[in-house]
């Protein structure tokens, strides 16, 4: 039985339907109107082995802010929903991923205590038409809605595209590890008995 979450969100700025299968194979169906974000989500799904379907319409004639933010909200909610009661999951995950000149580290705790630590210096304000300040917005909203403790550290890099790509890949791999089931883990991994 696969762990899956679906979220529908419609506001005056966006209309989004998103489904994630936590136990997937990395298949995607993405229509967001934001090509660079789609590229990153494709990497996220592939490297996390998540099946990801995102159908989004947003006010991209203004900019990509609302669409990017609301996709992250939906992704966080769907991921949390897909994990259910979190019994048996490893809870913690980490990954260090190189992308040419860039090296990114991501550490997660699916603790139900949302927090983002973002130690990232992006050399350029844009990649193509995508505003790179939206990367932090994306991961902030993802952390809040998935209710996870998320630490993102870029050790070095000078190509902005490579840095962001390394972050998305590392986040996917860390989440894959944290959400994986440990057959030796009974209940939730917490002395409180609850996450």
Topology:
Blueprint: E1 4-10, E2 14-21, E3 28-31, H1 35-48, E4 51-58, H2 65-83, E5 92-99, E6 102-109, E7 115-119, E8 126-127, E9 130-131, H3 133-146, E10 149-156, H4 160-179
Parallel strand pairs: 3-4, 7-10
Antiparallel strand pairs: 1-2, 2-4, 5-6, 6-10, 8-9
Helix pairs in contact: 1-4, 2-3
What does this structure look like?
The protein has about 200 residues and is α+β, with helices and mostly antiparallel strands. Helix content is about 35%, strand content about 30%. The protein contains 4 helices and 10 strands; from the N terminus they run E-E-E-H-E-H-E-E-E-E-E-H-E-H. It has helices spanning about 35-50, 65-85, 135-145, 160-180, and strands at about 5-10, 15-20, 30, 50-60, 90-100, 100-110, 115-120, 125, 130, 150-155. The strands form 3 sheets. It has a 4-stranded mixed β-sheet with strand order 1-2-4-3, with helices on one face. A 4-stranded mixed β-sheet has the order 5-6-10-7, covered by helices on one side. Strand 1 (about 5-10) and strand 2 (about 15-20) form a beta hairpin. Helix 1 (about 35-50) packs parallel to helix 4 (about 160-180) and helix 2 (about 65-85) runs parallel beside helix 3 (about 135-145). The longest helix is centred in the C-terminal third of the chain and has 20 residues, at about 160-180. It is globular, with a radius of gyration of 16 Å. The two termini are about 20 Å apart. The mean pLDDT is about 95.
